[in-house]
């Protein structure tokens, strides 16, 4: 039997599929996106949907699966999160037009968009309070640059970025997708995979700097980029590759990208990936947002404000004037509590203007996006009117950006209904009275509906069938429907001369009449005409919005800035936070500092947080504190809270302390906590050493470093020697400010040898063999580590604890006596001496047995509160008699 030829539709599918390698193909067929062959197999498994088959190809069944068009966004989100890319092929013509070419003609289809992790714009696919960055890194003749954009908001930035800085910068941005030249894929694959971002290699031609400059000029409609700044060849290459990728994925509908902004590496505090992870800045170690610094301090009420907060926390400023201006805005709104609450109430009503504007620019928006623009601009005008003329500089600049859109607000207000549908094709979003032609057409359409109701009443009277209904669907149009029992009457004379049979279903029979067909034509024409008018008006309103896109974007950024300042002020008011003094010195002094995340967690349980002081390089005090004390005493919390206070101060926020003086911190380094990296074959100790090496090789004299338990992953003397040498290097070579926590008490001797080192310890109290953590940090050295006591708290068996005490006492005695005596002590320790019978329990007193009997006789569930209290007093009296 000859092999069946490939159908025209399947030939079209294969052609489109071949033109879009590396992506699943969503092939539009009516109300569904269908997938075939390997795409269907992969998609059905990823989406947990049924895998069916359709026809044959090369003698084999063609696998097929599909998803409804109206629910496609949810399926797209699942596929993107699982690492897929999706090419969306839409029907480019009405099927009726294809039929005019012949009964076997295929509807024209083409890919209108390539959906990738870094190019999402749909509200349902994005996290409202986080950016969705697409980044591109390029290297040309010894220069390298990183460009990044969020096409859902229009942000577009670029900076010089050598390969050694790529990992920290990508950790700061947390992009969803990174573009790399195919020639550098091997160099960057590990860096990108560590961030769990998608790596997209591109052809070398996409990174050509000359072609990039032309693409950028075409994007902004300018003859030269000089108006935006002076860009190096590597910067142009990175930006051009990013724009080239957007042209590829958006199929010519470029997003609304704002003018590119050049960033300087020296303008922000440098924080590497390990430090971000250790300090849990935007994500907790568990992987979620809860438990992070961002979650603890987020008081913003708008999506734009939340995204700005994450940017500030990820990249605290090093520009003193900018920091002080931000603090002044927070101070002003902290003092003006009534104004702050009014502003926050207005801000709560502000939609996400940036993302609505981006969707409109990409033709993925709808009436609700126009309403979002209208509502946002209305709230912006209200907020501008609230802020007084004497507001600080940044707030005054925001006020200037919020006004000037009254004509557009008036137009949108008159044109749109309060609650429009999601899609343009649904119609009904233009307000009555805005367009005379539309009102007339709607009247005709609505009158037709009344006529249909009257016709139904007439047919019921004519036939005597009360259950007769006139209905409508997309296949038959308007039709008369009745039950099969009643249909017999309509199929018989004389009614069969009026009612024309159209369709019989399982329980119903459908008819039509000539007058009904004529009315259907009138109604459909008016309904379609009304929708066409609304589409035309929508396009007109969208153009009016896009003409003001730059000003609307400025207003959106101003609203985000006000929201963040008000959020910081609200945080300070509710948490008793202070305004930090930030200057150009090397001081770092904190009085009664607290950890914002830990304090928040303790408040939920009703427990207080013990505040502590920290003083580095002020009035001749040392630049390094060597912190000793037992585990569980709070050393790591103390280290982290001071690092976070420095970060918050330079982010422009008040800080959790009674007083804080922070000299500008250029770099923040943290080596706290232990974790292995099995994927790369690194032990916990190896990871610790790699992170420590990065600190020692990079930290300058304006850095702030926190180190915890350096050297603990190896033998005691190896670890002690490494920790000792690291501290000496920080003091003598890096000359930075540092907090260094250790269990090696031998290191406390360094305080007497190195002029910039002072001992500090976490205070504990021992009572009846138990250790009580007071969480107070004091100057001085700990007398011992209390490791055995902490082990007891952890629940180690009593026999193990007792054996540990014996061994510890013997080892300490040998250490004091030194040399050969130390080895002799170790040799004298008997093996397995811990396996001893537990000491006999003390014999119970006779009185205890009597009390136990009386207690067992009580039944609390059957007693009244008064009876229970009386029984308790009786037991207490009996116990007193036995003493």
From TrEMBL:
The keyword Acyltransferase does not apply. One of its GO terms (cellular component) is cytosol. PROSITE patterns: DNA_MISMATCH_REPAIR_2. This protein is involved in the repair of mismatches in DNA. It is possible that it carries out the mismatch recognition step. This protein has a weak ATPase activity. This is DNA mismatch repair protein MutS. PANTHER family: DNA MISMATCH REPAIR PROTEIN MSH1, MITOCHONDRIAL, DNA MISMATCH REPAIR PROTEIN MUTS FAMILY MEMBER. GO terms for biological process: mismatch repair. Residues 703-719 form the DNA mismatch repair proteins mutS family domain. It comes from Frigidibacter mobilis. Keywords: ATP-binding, DNA damage, DNA repair, DNA-binding, Nucleotide-binding. The gene is mutS. GO terms for molecular function: ATP binding; ATP-dependent DNA damage sensor activity; damaged DNA binding; mismatched DNA binding. ATP binds at residues 629-636. Belongs to the DNA mismatch repair MutS family. Gene3D superfamilies: 1.10.1420.10, 6.10.140.430, DNA repair protein MutS, domain I, MutS, connector domain, P-loop containing nucleotide triphosphate hydrolases.
């Amino acid at each position: 039997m000859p092999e069946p030829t490939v159908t025209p539709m399947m030939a079209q599918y294969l052609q489109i599929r071949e033109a879009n390698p590396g992506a699943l193909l969503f092939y539009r067929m009516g109300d569904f996106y269908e997938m075939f062959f390997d795409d269907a197999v992969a998609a059905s498994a990823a989406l947990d949907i049924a895998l069916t088959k359709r026809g044959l190809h090369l003698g084999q069944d063609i696998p097929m699966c599909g998803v409804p068009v109206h629910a496609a966004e949810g399926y797209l989100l699942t596929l993107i999160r699982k690492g897929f890319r999706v090419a969306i092929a839409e029907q480019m013509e009405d099927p009726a037009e294809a039929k005019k070419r012949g009964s076997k003609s295929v509807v024209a289809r083409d890919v209108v968009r390539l959906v990738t992790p870094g190019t999402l714009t749909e509200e349902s696919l994005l996290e409202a309070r986080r950016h969705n960055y697409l980044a591109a890194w390029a290297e040309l003749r010894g220069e390298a640059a990183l460009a990044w954009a969020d096409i859902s908001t229009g942000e577009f930035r670029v900076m010089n970025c050598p390969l050694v800085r790529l990992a920290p910068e990508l950790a700061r941005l947390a992009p969803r997708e990174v573009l790399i030249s195919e020639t550098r894929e091997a160099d960057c694959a590990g860096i990108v995979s560590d961030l769990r971002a998608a790596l997209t290699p591109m052809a070398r031609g996409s990174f050509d700097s000359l072609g990039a400059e032309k693409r950028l000029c075409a994007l902004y409609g300018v003859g030269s980029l000089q108006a935006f700044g002076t860009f190096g060849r590597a910067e142009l290459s990175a930006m051009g590759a990013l724009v080239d990728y957007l042209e590829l994925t958006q199929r010519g509908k470029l997003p609304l990208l704002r003018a590119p902004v050049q960033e300087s590496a020296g303008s922000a505090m440098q924080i590497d990936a390990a430090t971000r992870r250790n300090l849990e800045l935007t994500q907790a170690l568990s992987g979620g947002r809860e438990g992070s610094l961002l979650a603890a301090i987020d008081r913003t009420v708008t999506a734009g404000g939340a995204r700005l907060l994450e940017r500030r926390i990820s990249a605290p400023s090093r520009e003193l004037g900018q920091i002080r201006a931000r603090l002044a805005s927070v101070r002003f709104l902290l003092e003006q509590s009534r104004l702050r609450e009014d502003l926050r109430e207005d801000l709560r009503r502000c939609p996400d203007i940036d993302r609505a504007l981006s969707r409109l620019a990409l033709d993925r928006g709808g009436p609700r996006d126009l309403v979002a623009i209208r509502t946002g601009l209305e709230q912006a005008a209200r907020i501008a009117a609230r802020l007084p003329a004497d507001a600080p500089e940044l707030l005054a600049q925001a006020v200037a950006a919020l006004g000037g859109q009254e004509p557009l607000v008036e137009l949108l207000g008159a044109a749109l209904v309060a609650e429009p549908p999601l899609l343009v094709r649904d119609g009904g979003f233009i307000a009555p009275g805005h367009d005379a032609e539309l009102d007339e057409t709607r009247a005709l359409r609505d009158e037709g509906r009344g006529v249909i109701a009257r016709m139904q009443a007439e047919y019921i009277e004519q036939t005597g069938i009360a259950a007769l209904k006139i209905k409508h669907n997309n296949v038959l149009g308007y039709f008369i429907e009745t039950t099969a029992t009643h249909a017999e009457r309509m199929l018989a004379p004389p009614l069969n001369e009026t009612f024309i049979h159209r369709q019989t279903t399982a329980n119903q029979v459908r008819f039509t009449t000539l007058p009904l067909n004529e009315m259907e034509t009138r109604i459909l024409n008016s309904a379609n005409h009304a929708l066409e008018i609304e589409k035309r008006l929508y396009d007109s309103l969208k153009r009016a919005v896009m003409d003001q896109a730059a000003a609307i974007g400025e207003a959106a950024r101003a609203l985000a800035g006000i929201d963040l300042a008000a959020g910081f002020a609200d945080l300070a008011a509710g948490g008793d936070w202070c305004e930090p003094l930030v200057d150009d010195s090397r001081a770092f002094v904190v009085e009664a500092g607290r950890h914002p995340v830990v304090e928040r967690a303790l408040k939920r349980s009703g427990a207080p947080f013990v505040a502590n002081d920290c003083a580095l390089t002020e009035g001749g005090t040392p630049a390094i504190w060597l912190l000793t004390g037992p585990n569980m005493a709070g050393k790591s919390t103390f280290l982290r809270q001071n690092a976070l206070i420095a970060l918050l101060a330079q982010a422009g926020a008040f800080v959790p302390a009674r007083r804080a003086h922070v000299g500008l911190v250029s770099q923040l380094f943290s080596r706290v906590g232990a974790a292995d990296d099995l994927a790369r074959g690194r032990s916990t100790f190896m990871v610790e050493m790699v992170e420590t090496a990065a600190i020692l090789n990079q930290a300058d004299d304006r850095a702030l470093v926190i180190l915890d338990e350096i050297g603990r992953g190896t033998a005691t003397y190896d670890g002690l020697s490494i920790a000792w040498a690291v501290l000496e290097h920080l003091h003598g070579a890096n000359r930075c400010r540092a907090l260094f926590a250790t269990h090696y008490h031998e290191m406390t001797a360094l305080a007497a040898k190195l002029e910039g080192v002072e001992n500090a310890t976490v205070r504990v109290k021992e009572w009846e063999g138990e250790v009580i953590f007071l969480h107070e940090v004091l100057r001085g050295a700990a007398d011992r580590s209390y490791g055995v006591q902490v082990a007891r708290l952890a629940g180690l068996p009593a026999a193990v604890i007792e054996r540990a005490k014996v061994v510890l006492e013997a080892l300490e005695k040998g250490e004091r006596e030194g040399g050969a005596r130390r080895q002799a002590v170790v040799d004298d320790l008997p093996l397995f001496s811990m396996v001893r019978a537990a000491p006999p329990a003390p014999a119970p007193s006779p009185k205890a047995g009597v009390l136990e009997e009386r207690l067992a006789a009580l039944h609390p569930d059957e007693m009244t509160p008064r009876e229970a209290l009386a029984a308790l007093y009786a037991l207490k009296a009996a116990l007193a008699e036995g003493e």
